[in-house]
Model the fold of this input.
Amino acid sequence: MNVSKAEENKYDYHIKKNSISALTEEVIGILSEQVKVKNISIEKRITPNIFGVFDIERTKFVLQVLLENAVHYTPVDGKIEICVFENESICGFSVKDSGVGISKADQSRLFTKFYRGDKARLADTEGMGIGLFISKDIISHQHGKIWADSAGENQGSIFTITLPKSK
Done:
């Protein structure tokens, strides 16, 4: 249903000044049990009081998708690094994992509807391939950017979003 709404531009956005630092800490807390079960170490580099202009509920969904993916695709005893950053005009969030990585062929298709790479399908059989698609739409609607980097399979990945910074 969210895919249909995204494609029809029917989301009702409430864009205002929000703390990306606090939102990131909240989402980490939501996923803490999953992290504990897999004994994944979390390294946080979250500068407090970084504010951006974004819809908090929609952006929370995006952060959850990115962190849940990092947890799903990182093996037991793996590592995840979470960073919140800013410069003069943007604020952002990145999550780096030590997981299955993304082949060069898969990287160009990551944010398309229903696409899941071979390694992703093997690591998590329940995903539908729409989380990243919806996330890209949400971030784009807020004048932000989202992208992924990976050196290749079995070399982890980094997902990053940027949003307009609050003045």
Observations:
- The chain is about 35% helix and 25% strand.
